[in-house]
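User:
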Amino acid sequence: MQLHDPSDHAAIDATFFDRENASKHYCCRTNYRVQTIKTTALVDTESQAILDVHCTTEKRHDTQLGWQVACRNAGDLASLAADKGYDWMELREKLREEGVRPLIKHREFRPIDHEHNARIDGPRYRQRAMCETVFSTIKRTLGDAVRARTWYGEFRELVLTCTVHNIKQSLNP
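Assistant: Predicted structure:
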């Protein structure tokens, strides 16, 4: 059973959640050095429901994570909006191959990049901010840190946080 009827348009963005500080003894004993978890979410722009989430402690670039998340959901999407952090020509080409229109602004190095960005600027691209709204809502209402100690527990906690957000969204249409 689905809580939301997803639209064909989504946006993708990433944020960091803090890992709750443990005692110095625990950190030394378990080699617990990474302080944040990078969370990438695919958000439906109409319902603000989180369609997919990816968590990592590695310093991978947004383009690599973006493709991984978009690939899993490409069959259900007509367009994907993202900020300049996802500017990668191969990502755009892969999305087009899957039948998804990439609404990803170019980083501006040449005059033609300005022209590309002017064509993208429209109502669908401006819905990209829905990701930031969702992350802000989650952090304000459910907290900005994970409390679990194991990697799997932290991942599970973030997935449950996203599920709780989706349930709250379905109750307040």
